Amino acid sequence: MDYGAIYPELILILFAAALPALHWLFKSSRALASISLVGIAASIGTVVYYMVNGYPDVIGNVNTPLLGFDALAAVFSLVFLSVAFYVVLASAMYIEGENHLAEYYSLILLATAGMMLVASAYDLITIFVGLELASMSTYALVAFRKRDKRGAEAAVKYVIIGAFSSALALYGISILYGLAGTSNLEGINAALAVQGTELATLLAIALVIAGFGFKVAIAPFHMWAPDVYEGAPSTVSALLASSSKKMGLVLMFKIFLVGMIALKADWDVVVGILAILTMTVGNILALSQTNIKRMLAYSSIAQAGYILMALPLATVVSDYAITGGIFHIITHAFMKGGAFIVVAALAYVAIGESISDYKGLGKRSPFLAFSMTIFLFALAGIPPLSGFMSKVVLISASIQAAETTQWMLWLGVALVLNSALSLYYYVRVIKNMYVEKGDSVERIKLPVSMAAAVAICLIATIGLGIFFDPVLELSSEAAKVLFPTLMG
Amino acid sequence: MLENIPILSLLILFPLVGALVVFLMGKSDKAAKYTALFFSAIPLALSILVLTEFSLTGGFQFEEQYEWISFLGISLHLAVDGVSITMVFLSALLVFLAILFSWDVKERLNQYLALMLILDAGILGVFTSLDYFVFYIFWEVVLIPMYFLIAIWGGVNRAYASIKFFIYTHVASLAMLLGIFALYFTTAPMLIENGVIPADAIGTFDMLAIASVAGGLGEALQIAIFGALFFGFIVKMPMVPFHTWLPDAHVQAPTAGSVLLAGLLLKMGSYGIIRICLPTLPTAAVDFQIIMAVIGVVSIIYGAFACLAQTDLKKMVAYSSVSHMGIVMLGIATLSWLGIAAAVFQMFAHGLITAVLFMVCGMFQHKTGTREIPLLGGLAPKIPILSTVMMMGFMASLGLPGMIGFLAEFSVFTATFDTWGLWVFVPIATVALTAAYYLWAMQRSIFGELTDKIDTSKLHDAYWFEIIPLAVLLGLIVLFGIWPAFVMDLITPSIPLVWPLGVI
């Protein structure tokens, strides 16, 4: 059998396994980071090779495959790998001098492999394996600074919530399996289409929404996220917000659109309401935050709400809505990740995490202040930055859907109102950086690797705003994978 | 000769390049100033070049179109007609003069000038683009430099004012965005049917293509879309009751920021109504006629009364902008060719006049340390140039015949009379009010007895870099006041294309 479909993951896993051994040879964080970067680059190379030369065969029975590396998997793999790349780059100096360096990088690679597995899964079992691989790795990463009280507390919360939500999701998945008699997503859909809605199906939908809702931090299952993002090392927060959360979203895309599209009438309104609730709750709670990481965590919740909007919209305008969702996932990976890396870089030079600590930053580090400004403006959706473009596709999908299904206009209106609301807390940070005078005027010296990580995100955030045609087409191609009937 | 040069793209590109260059110049203030002046002079020169080559036929000229995002049907479509070239010239001129006027700014000068140049590019983009998407991007791009200009170089309460400005106008823009998308999707089937865009396209953002079929939309839908766009535009103008961001922003903004805010940013709102709302959704415009007229007249009256109550010279000028932009709105509301042309003329006139007024306010602040009218007084003999300029500016603004403001207002009122008859006396009555607040303010600030609040020993009259911009502006105010045909001939042929229904 051809295992080409998991080569990108295998490469990461090999490097992850080798890193602790290599730690005997290389002691420095920089060397280990470089090795990890090689692994990530090799994996990226494989993905790009597949994108250019055609995708490998699926793994498993051809009619009920376990997983396959398709356009969707490729796009998401690239997102996860790029995030891993800049997170490792920023970590090289950030975690220098701490214990268990090799394990740290190893865990990042494993988490990324798990997420990629989820993105290429066609089967509930594969999904669950990938999900747990990613979750276990991130639990340990959050606890990386185990002597830090906040970190330890965050890790415990994350593990308990994570385990609980996995159990809920697993329960839902098992009911689906019981109803359909198969764990293959398309098979489930076919079976559900025949059976129609039963009480058990509704229970399964509720459990799946709750279980994965916790993972993605959808309101009202979001309470853990700010605590965990705040307590984790900032580089890990970047990973959580930019890729772990996105894994949850692609998972929901797959389960709802491939596995349960036959039951769309049962879940579209519920998911729509949750999307509006999530963006609104996220933005309102972000308004009063004084800690920047908590603020970014709440803003991530809001952004997940924007992306979640694509699910109900997809029941009407199919792949166009998901194109918007995927595009926003891509842009968000860089703008939010970049913001967290800036926080990490500033923490590295001993600047606190309170928003008031950022006073006068415009003078102390023009580069970081400028980058942060761009990231925040992009998050708020100010043109011509990437966040604006991806929101535009989502809004336009909502208006297009509203032509036939009127209530869907409210999704777009909610997004617009929320964008306006969010501007307030983003601008507050910018105001602190440029308008307020800080206590110190000393220039900040930044390690090259961190500056490079910020620069990657910066270039992507500006570039995706101006030259987004190819990425949009890629997202569109990836979105079509979720709608097999369109492919035929 | 000019056919092969993408002159409008260059018009937008040069300030952007200039912004980058000036920003990178860092420490050298003197070099930054000359460079900024140079890069703002290029659009001015180019706009004059366009004016000399402009044929008075009314259609769009100097058209350029480049594919940008074919997936969504977005292209960089630039062109000017009589309405937009007037605004382009005004923009290029005011930015150039505002940079000259900022000659003595010292704090973070390179950033300040770079922001002004970005603003220049954004505004020129708004006035030249014929693609909704690009239009929206330029529209929002204008916000950011203005936010920073107020937030960094503004007065004591700048943080509050800048955020208020940003959020008010951003919310309005988002409403406009919804309206744009509604147009985009609802016109797509008709455009596909007419063969304007290919059958597999999602739609197009081209203004002219959309305007060619939008009349076929249902009336209720037209009204809804018109409402969303109209809301976006009147917050920017700003019209009562959405004007409250304006006094705050103006009082806190640095002088050059105020000049551009009142001179150009407000015009974006009325330009949007004229360029987008009227030609695209004429049926809805007729339905909105009374609403537009009422909003316009209320703004005229409210602005004038608010002026009477102000003690801060700058705040008074800010409220007078609300009043004068109300006249623009009234001109548009007449939905007659004369009224709309007069509205554009009033936009141009107000741009020149208000620039003078804000420069005068800035100079008062600079030289005497205060703008509070009760603290000033008897300054005319001490600072004769500034006082003369103030007098001329106030006279122009209250509509003294022989100056540009008189003709603009007179034309609007003529059109109002043609449409609503004697109701015209409601807005005309406020002209007396306008005269009252200007004369009263002048009397208290430069004539009468000297107060002991101002240290006159160090009082310095206008510097060269203040005199030149003011002289240019006042020269144009008088020139076009005596010879309005130059501007009117430019505008008038384009109006039938903007307002296809003719006189209602």
Protein model, in words:
The complex is a heterodimer of chains A (488) and B (504). The model of chain A has no long low-confidence stretch (mean pLDDT 91). A two-stranded antiparallel sheet of chain A has the order 1-2. Chain A has 21 helices and two strands. In chain A, a hairpin with a 4-residue loop joins strand 1 and strand 2. Chain A has one domain. The radius of gyration of chain A is 21 Å and the shape is globular. With 488 residues, chain A is an all-alpha fold. Chain B has 504 residues and is mostly helical. Chain B has a domain at 288-504. Chain B contains 20 helices and two strands. In chain B, strand 1 and strand 2 (74-80) form a beta hairpin. In chain B, helix 1 runs antiparallel to helix 4, helix 3 runs antiparallel to helix 10 and helix 16 (404-420) packs across helix 18. The longest helix of chain B is centred in the middle third of the chain and has 36 residues, at 158-193. The interface between A and B is medium-sized, with 32 and 33 residues.
Largest sheet, strands/sense/barrel of chain B? 2 strands, antiparallel
Helices and strands of chain A, in order, run as: HHEEHHHHHHHHHHHHHHHHHHH
Q: Tell me the fraction of residues in β-strands of chain B, as a range.
A: under 5%
**In one word, what is the shape of chain A?**
globular
Spatial order of strands in the largest sheet of chain A:
1-2
Oligomer: heterodimer
The side-by-side strand order for the widest beta sheet of chain B comes to: 1-2
Please tell me the total number of domains of chain A.
1
Characterize the main sheet of chain A: 2 strands, antiparallel
Query: End-to-end span of chain B in angstroms?
Result: 42 Å
Number of helices of chain A: 21
